[in-house]
Specification:
Shape: globular
Structural class: alpha/beta
CATH superfamily: Vaccinia Virus protein VP39
Number of strands: 10
Radius of gyration: 17 Å
CATH class: Alpha Beta
Largest sheet: 7 strands, mixed
Strand content: 25-35%
Helix content: 25-40%
Distance between the termini: 33 Å
Number of helices: 7
């Protein structure tokens, strides 16, 4: 658990190593009312654009929610994740045969060639990365010079409410949280600068009335920043 945010753990909360947490979460991940995902999936596609014929790396692909959709839209997709549980779900979903899924620890150098992707996507992952400059350098290494990197993440302001990635473990019934790095916006800005990347877009998005109606879990965060979107170029 991040020492900067002690409120993230209570007597009924289990904080697990990130991989173990996501392995457990995989069983229910796609079935939950997840306000953050609902907001992201509304706002991210216009920033990504048309992917037909493009080579796409989905770094931290999880259950394949982006990978499978982008492959269906005509992209050539490689999905990378270190959670066996998440990848098992991704590989079992319709259309999975069109995606190359790779199990790999994102804290290590990516097993992907230099300048090999038109688009590099990294969604709701950076919250768990402890060395953002090194991670962003890896994303820079694999993107083509005329491509871009698109990142979404839980807004650091959620930490001020003691919120991080979390789920109710169906086996224990307890609030369960994969380990979070507790990165702040300044950490992202510093990492971008140290990696020699440049901001093409950065925006912060709060819960609005439409999302609150769609997602009961979002209502209590109405008006509070929930999502950070960043697009980077070389």
């Amino acid at each position: 658990m991040d020492d900067k945010h002690p409120s993230a753990q209570t007597t009924r909360t289990d904080v697990l190593p990130t991989r173990e947490g996501y392995d457990r979460w995989a069983e229910v991940y796609d079935d939950e009312d997840n306000a953050l995902i609902a907001l992201e999936e509304r706002l991210l596609p216009p920033l990504l654009g048309d992917v037909r014929g493009l080579s796409i790396a989905d770094i931290g692909c999880g259950t394949g929610r982006h990978s499978l959709r982008l492959a269906e839209q005509g992209g050539h997709v490689t999905g990378v994740d270190f959670s066996n549980g998440m990848l098992d779900v991704a590989r079992s979903r319709p259309g999975a045969e069109a995606v190359t899924f790779i199990e790999h620890d994102l804290g290590e150098s990516l097993p992907l060639a230099d300048a090999s992707f038109d688009r590099v996507l990294c969604c709701l992952v950076a919250e768990h990365i402890t060395d953002l400059p090194a991670f962003f350098l890896e994303l820079k290494r694999i993107v083509r010079p005329d491509g871009f990197i698109l990142i979404s993440d839980m807004h650091p302001a959620m930490m001020l409410k003691g919120i991080q990635a979390r789920f109710t473990d169906p086996k224990t019934g307890r609030d369960t949280r994969p380990q979070s790095a507790g990165n702040q916006i300044s950490d992202y800005v510093t990492a971008v600068a140290r990696a020699g990347l440049h901001f093409d877009h950065i925006s912060e998005h709060a819960v609005d009335g439409a999302l609150a109606k769609k997602s009961p879990r979002a209502a209590k965060y109405l008006g509070w920043p929930m999502l950070l979107l960043i697009r980077l170029v070389i």
